[in-house]
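## Example record

The block below lists the input lines for one assembly entry, exactly as stored, with component labels intact.
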Amino acid sequence: MEESVLSGRIWVLLDRKERLIEDIDTDQIYHNAFLHITELSQMGQYALGNLEGWKDFPEKVHSGDILVAGRNFGAGSSRQQAVDCFTALNIGLILAPSFGAIYFRNAVNSGFPVLKCAALDELVAKKALETGDKIEVNFRSGEGWDISKDISFKVEPMSAVQYDILKAEGLFNYGKKLGHE
Amino acid sequence: MIATLLSGVRNDILFTFLAMTFNKGGILGKTFSEKILGLKAGKEVQAGEVVTVSPDYILSHDNSAAIFEEFKKLGTRNVKCPQKLVIILDHVVPASSEQYALNHKIIREFVAEQKIQNFFDIFFGICHQVFSENGFALPGKLILGADSHTTSYGAFGAFAAGIGRSEVASLWATDEIWLRVPETLKIEIEGKLPSGVYAKDVILKIIGEEGADRANYRAVEFTGNAIKEFSLASRLVLANMAAEIGAKNGYFEPDEKVLQWLKERAREKFEVITSDPDAKFEAVLKYDISSLEPQVACPHTVDNIKPVSEVEGEEFHQAVIGTCTNGRFEDLEVAARVLKGKKIHPKVRVLVIPASRQEYLFALKKGILEILVSAGCVILNPGCGPCLGAHQGILAPGEVALSTANRNFRGRMGSRESKIFLASPATVAASSIEGKITDPRKFL
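Predicted structure tokens for the full assembly:
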């Protein structure tokens, strides 16, 4: 597999009316009650624990799976557990039309892949992307492909800084590299 | 000593760049964000660019224990610039469990070992209030904090943004970070606040109109004749809640009120940085507040705003007056004005949490707390209290809270089967008398 390609099985976060859930805030992703936990390996079990209908997500998900969410994913608090809980579950990528600003930075800086896809609501509405599909995304070119349905779509390619941090496997190594340039 | 020297150097650089910018005459037109991040990066920058900068101050709170865990993994022994760290314990104070107690203990040991001078233990209050009172929040400073409401210091003309835990750990180690220079939304607020309507109602109205993600990845600059009349405490309400439209920072141009307030508090020299008159803003959003009525944020998002007239009669169980949004003297005073000589409804419990020890003491001396206690309120120690659902008033399933805080996300204050409404201190106080959401104007 190419270095710039991520692939995996998707989970589409839908509400009861089959729409992408918007504004999933950090309290729904990782509840306050577990903020005292500092050990990453213990965070996965609480991922999406406060999101209606998705409490059992950590038990259902497999390593490398991809999460598809609605607009403004990760709004709210700066808590990094809301990113780390997905790292702990070894989620491969989160795809959303937009992210909370601090959430996006947190993900970028921990070397966790997050990508914006403007057409996501439409793709989900016409069932071009459904839970269980296998997809492939090239985060440099912005080309996405639903392998199960053979439908292609576009995502916003990673910025240079996001790509460099991802390659460096996190902010600190990236910072060390900057210092040597 | 080192801190003074460093700040001296920085101010010199600052002057040079200000002079450079002005000399170029024709290509002025930069926003506050472009100017301050340009100064810090040592070059001219425009919105959209990514710069590497060193902040002036790095704030963290109880999460310093988790940050320390990250810091240890980096393999660096010492904090690079310990004088820049400001650590304030406020989220769960005093510790409510063994785990929180252990986190606090780890932080105290870290502070001693790394000789962190700017450490504020559990008795000072909420980080954003304590940080401001102690003169760290200064015009023209770049402040990064491991808390989303770090935007508060925009009220003093700082570039202040919330960042994450591993970013702070990396900053402790390297003193450098990348930032994207944000585009700026200018919010112009004109008119005069009607009686019984406050800064909280203004920002709730704006959030309701613009939506929770309107300012994602963007800076906000608050201007207009109305905010010139606002007290600093009121401006802090707006800057604090700029985070709720997703803003990177919420800047106010410092005026005489700010400079006066800083006179006896400023920790070091500072330079006022302002947007150029011909700066390029992404959009200008205009509001006239002259006929605004009290506003309420309904469950479960902060942008689900309704005028109080549409929510009146909604029953609730617990009221909260306090937090980094509305726990200052002017907030406690207006609550006392409403509650003086009255009793809170027997079905309601009212928690009052002054934002800091200073605000607590001032309210105590002025007799404000006596009025609140006589009315039936419970006064808690300065800190975040139940706002983030960790202790001191957790909600049971089916319970409803009416709070002056800044967030009403589902389950934030306890059970995910509970609900949170947000309003001004006046609305919360008036509603506490009736036991249901009430227009405060009939009590004022």
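DSSP finds 15 helices and 18 strands in chain B. The domain at 296-443 of chain B is CATH 3.30.499.10 (Aconitase; domain 3).
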